Amino acid sequence: MSVSTSFIAGYIPSSLASNIKAVDWLPQNDLLAHKDIKAFVSHVGHNSLYEAAYHGVPLVAFPLYGDQHANAKKAEHFSLGLTVDFESMNAQQMFETTELVITEPRYLFISFPSFDICFTY
Q1: What is the pLDDT of residues 56-112, one digit of tens each?
Q2: Which long-range contacts (CB under 8 A, 24 or more apart) does 83-91 make?
Q3: How far is C-alpha 116 from the chain's CA centre?
Q4: Between the CA of residue 92 and those of 33, 58, 61, 95, what are the distances in Å?
Q5: How far apart (Å, rounded) are the C-alpha atoms in residues 94 and 121?
Q6: Helix (H) or strand (E) holding 46
Q7: Could you tell me if residue 53 is inside a domain?
Q8: Angle at 84 between CA 79 and CA 89, to 5 degrees
Q9: CA distance 11 to 14
Q10: Is the residue at 111 inside a domain?
Q11: Lowest CB count within 10 Å: 30, 45, 46, 53, which one?
Q12: pLDDT tens sequence across 24-61
């Protein structure tokens, strides 16, 4: 997998921890398939929702517009993850929500048949 950091080079803080890799782009599906992925912070567009469910990666849903709010509700309804409100959340809430989806057993699943989350409720 080839990744580039040229586009974001001027935005990476020097204090960034060595275990964090900042890149312009990478194949999301490959990332979600990696054995060490613990959670996925996402805007929860359709592809993000389905790919996370397919790979069994818990979500921290960060909906911004359009179908993303409905997708975030689906993620919560099916215990795929939790939603944070981008307008009111702070760093502590983001940390706590991410920690919860990683550690709470109801969000830990092997995989979820993506066709099931297409149904409305």
Answers
A1: 999 999 999 999 999 999 999 989 999 999 999 999 999 999 999 999 988 876 555
A2: 84/60, 86/62
A3: 19
A4: 27, 19, 16, 5
A5: 27
A6: helix 46-55
A7: yes
A8: 155
A9: 9
A10: yes
A11: 30
A12: 788 999 999 999 999 999 999 999 999 999 899 999 99
Question: Domain of 84: which CATH number?
Answer: 3.40.50.2000
CA distance 102 to 4: 28
Q: What is the pTM of this model?
A: 0.77
Closest CA to 108 of 97, 116, 118, 100: 100
Residues linked to residue 41 through DSSP beta bridges, in sequence order? 60
In angstroms, the first-to-last Cα distance of the chain is: 39
Decide if 82 is inside a domain: yes
As for how many domains the chain has, the answer is: 1
Tallying the residues shown for the chain, one arrives at: 121
Is residue 12 a part of any domain in this protein? no
Structural domain of residue 111, as residue ranges? 27-118
Q: Are 12 and 22 in contact (CB under 8 A)?
A: yes
What's phi and psi for 14, nearest 5 deg?
A: -65, -20
